[in-house]
Amino acid sequence: MIYELNKNNIAFPNPNEADKNGLLAFGGDLSSERLIAAYKNGIFPWPHSNFSLLWFSPNPRAVIYPDKFRLTRSLRYSLKKYKIEVDTNFSKVITMCAKTRKNTTWINDEIIESYCRLHELGVAHSVESYDEHEELVGGLYGVCVGKVFCGESMFALKKDASKSALYELCQTASKKGGLIDCQIINPHLSSLGAVEISRDKFLRLLNFLGDKSPLL
């Protein structure tokens, strides 16, 4: 059963009731209150063309344990090229994610506006890579639930720029006992050290780490 969300009620159904594709609900809106409630319950929005707003909680779930990030020799060299900053240009990062990723249509104007509001509330964050000319050349953004960083998207204009940002995020998460949520596995994430865990395990980790002091 796929639930229809009530615009006057931000409550979500149990994420374990999602279908085999992780689809849990449709409808509702992208208010800050609803988005925060979603992430706290291991749920995220994923707009699809020609469909109402869709909400997912996949099983299995892709995560990166920070100390398991795969630092290759090539990336180790690339790290020297970039200066990493946090939250200095969130709107530019999410906009570049929308513009540069092939076949990415879900980061629409409504998504950008909604996550910028979350950023203003100190809930959504960006990690950015700047080159020697102080130009933004890569980065990522996501939502923090305590010590869990729920990654949404990344972009790179130069080699390893987004990987460098993710590496530094993992360094911070490792020091603070955090976790990186990658939502759904793909070959690129696997190459960086992402693994799949059950939704139940992810929700337990989210429940434990979500009440801790913020990762960023």
Quick overview:
It contains 7 helices and 11 strands. The chain has 216 residues and is of the alpha+beta class. The protein has 2 domains: 56 residues, Alpha-Beta Plaits (2-Layer Sandwich), CATH 3.30.70; 148 residues, Leucyl/phenylalanyl-tRNA-protein transferase, C-terminal domain (Aminopeptidase), CATH 3.40.630.70.
What does this structure look like?
Helix 3 runs antiparallel to helix 4. The chain is of the alpha+beta class and 216 residues long. Helices cover 32% and strands 25% of the residues. A hairpin with a 5-residue loop joins strand 7 and strand 8. The protein folds into 2 domains: 56 residues, 2-Layer Sandwich (Alpha-Beta Plaits), CATH 3.30.70; 148 residues, Leucyl/phenylalanyl-tRNA-protein transferase, C-terminal domain (Aminopeptidase, 3-Layer(aba) Sandwich), CATH 3.40.630. It has a 7-stranded mixed beta sheet, sandwiched between helices.
Which structural class is indicated by helix and strand composition? alpha+beta
Helix content: 25-40%
Quickly count the domains.
Answer: 2
Q: Going across the major beta sheet, what is the strand order?
A: 6-7-8-9-10-5-11
- Please give the CATH architecture of the largest domain: 3-Layer(aba) Sandwich
Poorly predicted runs of 5 or more residues? none
Shape: globular
- What is the C-level CATH assignment of the largest domain? Alpha Beta
